Give the backbone structure.
Amino acid sequence: HEESRVIDQPPAIEINLPPLTGPQMAIFQIDERPERCIDVEGAPRSAKSWGIGFWIWKLAYKYPGIQVFYCRYKDDDLVTLRDVWAKVSVYFPPYLQPKWNSSDQSWDFPNASRVLLSSLRVSEGATAAAIHGKYKGKTIAVVIIEEAQEGPWANYLGLKERLSQSKTPAGEDFNYPLKI
């Protein structure tokens, strides 16, 4: 009987980020906190979204194979997430850049990490069960809901249930941070 091996940390990658504000630094360290559910609050225009963008990149390389669900409630608001992503991405070298996967609506990183970009809203005529359609069946480690107050509580509860990733895409056990 062979014990399964749990991977804790990949090799170090050195990145030079711009100076982060206090709130951005707090966001950047969310994966090191014990709480599962974190509400990031702050003044308008305090660069919280940039902090989230840098944190997503950290997650992608600190935890190879991590699945992150990055969302807003309405489709139209995904433009804002893409804009923040584009601005934050310039701080990372070309060899670390993910490829956009249009069929899965995700940024796929060279180390098998994936950031799924999605809205939560479903069509008006959808049944109550369809409300979870955008994330049903997905195994996710981290959920980031920008402007969470825009979405129904039922989406939050459904996404919270998805926090279950414990294996890499290759099937190895891994201690992913499970956060929403």
About this structure: Helices lie at 22-28, 48-62, 78-89, 153-161. The chain has a mean pLDDT of 87. The CA atoms of residues 67 and 140 lie 5 Å apart.
